[in-house]
Amino acid sequence: MPGKLFRVDVVAPEAIVYSGDAQFISARTTEGDIGILADHEATMAALATGPVEIHDADDNVTTIGIHGGFLQIYANSVTLLTDRAEMTEGGREEALRLAEELKAAQQRAIEAENEAEAQDSLG
Fold first, then answer.
1. Residue 115's domain spans which residues?
2. Is residue 71 part of a domain?
3. Burial class (CB in 10 A: 0-12, 13-18, 19+), 108
């Protein structure tokens, strides 16, 4: 029998990556890992690059690699607003690898933008 369920939404700028009910979530914040069950106290935290694991009512696990953003827990609802997120099939290690790739891709985009701005200012 599943534990008490709560609502979970993982939202990136491009899309809602996950939306559904869960009995447990684990995520990485800038302060360390957090495990969330129903009736968790209200919390806000900055998300770190890493895996998110969502355990649904049937104890199936969905893994998502994320990079940055915020986590809000309020009234049996958890929302992760993230800069970048992508679902994986390979579990926690695959999600961690993917999250690092998302972080690197964002860093490359920032560097390219800075380079373009520097070129524009020169000429």
1. 6-122
2. yes
3. exposed
